[in-house]
Design brief:
The chain is α/β, with parallel strands linked by helices and 287 residues long. The chain has eight helices and eleven strands.
């Protein structure tokens, strides 16, 4: 039986890293988790409402994460350098499939990230990181300066671009970021796949990993929910009048017998995604 690739979704709170006062350190922490998302092929990040007053922080998180996920040759076009992106230059590159460098040469069937710069009649001017933008004919107008993926075709020695769906490609082409005003219980209720909440008060992964192995035989998507510096997931749901156990399929402690009183979100992400990567590999599931 042919199984679909496993879609991996991460849910983090709007207050994430808000306890970090300086934008430089906050940017560095975002760089660490962006690398984590890319290493473990996370498809989507949902930034949910955990407390009022943190929406602007959520927009900052989204902007930096999206910036890092953008092909280097497009960053100046899409994101004019402003105060909130002041320190992105110190972060390590993601080095994922569509993060190619600007080049004069291009290969047949190469996938490149691009944006439409402008239109000339029924022709679009598209930047894909070559020596100069490419002009292509389009039947339906594409949005300007929105990131798109194109397959490069060489027909009669002429360069053509074919719009492709990232979800149907073999390789990993980064993540999407969604900021929502939905609470964590609302996010969990709306999600149709397997819902895993992470908590030090949950069941030890050592006792439950065989259940996950079995579940992976039939599911196509997983959502992993993480708490904040201020509160764990049980507390966040309690304030919404909801029991976490009623909206998640599993509440799991991925670091039993931890030696520290707390685990930072970036540390928790690496711990949880490493363990999940092992479990999915044992089941032969690709992400």
């Amino acid at each position: 039986m042919i199984r679909n690739k496993l879609k991996l979704v991460i849910a983090v709170p709007q207050s994430l890293f808000s306890e970090t006062p300086h934008i430089r350190e906050k940017t560095m922490r975002l760089g660490f988790i962006s690398r984590c998302f890319s290493i473990f092929k996370v498809n989507e990040i949902i930034i949910y409402r955990d407390r009022n007053g943190y929406f602007s922080n959520a927009l900052f998180l989204s902007k930096v994460l999206n910036y890092l996920n953008t092909a280097p040759y497009l960053r100046k076009i899409i994101y004019p350098l402003k105060k909130d992106l002041k320190y992105v230059g110190i972060l390590p590159p993601l080095c994922i499939s569509h993060h190619l460098v600007s080049s004069d040469k291009v290969q047949e069937d190469e996938i490149r990230e691009g944006v439409v710069l402008s239109y000339k009649g029924n022709k679009a001017v598209v930047e894909i990181g070559l020596r100069k933008p490419v002009i292509i004919e389009v039947g339906e107008k594409l949005p300007i300066k929105k990131k798109l993926l194109f397959k490069v075709r060489l027909i009669n020695n002429k360069l053509k671009l074919e719009l492709v769906d990232r979800n149907k490609l073999e390789n990993y082409y980064g993540y999407t970021v969604k900021v929502t005003n939905n609470s964590l219980p609302e996010v969990l209720r709306k999600f149709k796949g397997l819902k895993i909440a992470t908590s030090k008060h949950g069941t030890s992964i050592a006792k439950i990993y065989l259940n996950l192995l079995n579940d992976l035989k039939s599911i196509d998507s997983i959502l992993l929910a993480f708490g904040s510096h201020f509160e764990g997931l049980y507390e966040i749901c309690f304030r919404e009048g909801v029991n976490l156990d009623d909206v998640a399929n599993y509440v799991i402690n991925f670091a039993p017998n931890q030696g520290t009183q707390t685990i930072r979100t970036e540390e928790a992400l690496y711990i949880v995604l490493s363990i999940l990567n092992l479990i999915t590999s044992l089941q032969g599931r690709e992400k």
